């Protein structure tokens, strides 16, 4: 008998388990730290042997009920940090993280601390909060992330902005220490 599962249940599926994804039968192979899911051959509805967590909302995913499952192991956690825009954004980030298995380090259940400007996760699955930018900037081993809506929300890394300063010819010559010819492309 086929049993529907969600992306959260994939951590319980053993290698070799018979599955059906979007009506296509396949055999489970692996699940990685980027929440990508792999099958043994190219039998997924998209003609591939893998799908990302963002694909789960597209197809019904089922496992054969008589298959063996392993005891739930926590997904791989990461050191991440988030800048919070407002209370609704904080709620969305927290709910996305809870869905991935993160829990408040304080042990409190559910959405909390929505007034805080910064949220952090640790590689042990803890969720923490912060209120100062100095502390946020000091967390150098935590890569900055944000969320984007994809059926639910997906966590994505934030690419650091590199400041660009428009300079005059004189400023460039002062930095270089010699005269330059500037050719304008305009």
**What's the helical proportion of residues?**
10-25%
Number of helices: 3
First-last Cα distance: 67 Å
* pLDDT averaged residue by residue: 77
Order of helices and strands: EEEEEEEHEEEHEEH
Poorly predicted spans: 67-72
Biggest sheet details? 6 strands, antiparallel
Total strands: 12
* Mass-distribution shape: extended
Features:
29% strand, single chain, six-stranded mixed beta sheet, 186 residues, six-stranded antiparallel beta sheet, 2 domains, 15% helix, alpha+beta
Can you characterise this structure?
There is one protein chain. The chain is an alpha+beta fold. The protein folds into two domains: about 1-65, no CATH class; about 80-155, no CATH class. It is built from three helices and twelve strands; from the N terminus they run βββββββαβββαββα. It has helices at about 85-100, 135-140, 170-175; strands spanning about 1-5, 20, 25-30, 35-40, 50, 60-65, 80-85, 105, 120, 125-130, 145-150, 150-155. The chain has a six-stranded antiparallel β-sheet, with no helix packed on it. It has a six-stranded mixed β-sheet with strand order 8-10-9-7-11-12. A hairpin with a 5-residue loop joins strand 3 (about 25-30) and strand 4. The longest helix is centred in the middle third of the chain and has 13 residues, at about 85-100.
């Amino acid at each position: 008998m086929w049993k529907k599962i969600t992306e959260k249940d994939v951590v319980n599926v053993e290698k070799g388990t018979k599955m059906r994804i979007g009506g296509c039968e396949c055999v489970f192979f692996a699940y990685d730290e980027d929440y990508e899911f792999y099958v043994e051959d190219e039998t997924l509805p998209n003609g591939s042997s893998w799908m990302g967590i963002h694909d789960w909302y597209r197809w019904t995913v089922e496992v054969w009920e008589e298959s063996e499952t392993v005891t739930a192991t926590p997904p791989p956690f990461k050191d991440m940090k988030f800048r919070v825009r407002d209370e609704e954004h904080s709620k969305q980030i927290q709910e996305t993280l809870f869905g991935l298995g993160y829990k408040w380090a304080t042990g409190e259940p559910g959405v909390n601390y929505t007034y805080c400007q910064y949220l952090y996760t640790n590689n042990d699955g803890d969720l923490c909060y912060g209120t100062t930018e100095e502390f946020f900037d000091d967390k150098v081993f935590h890569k900055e992330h944000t969320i984007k809506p994809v059926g639910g929300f997906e966590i994505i890394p934030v690419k650091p902005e590199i400041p660009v300063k428009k300079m005059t010819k004189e400023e460039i010559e002062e930095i270089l220490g010699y005269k330059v010819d500037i050719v304008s492309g305009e």
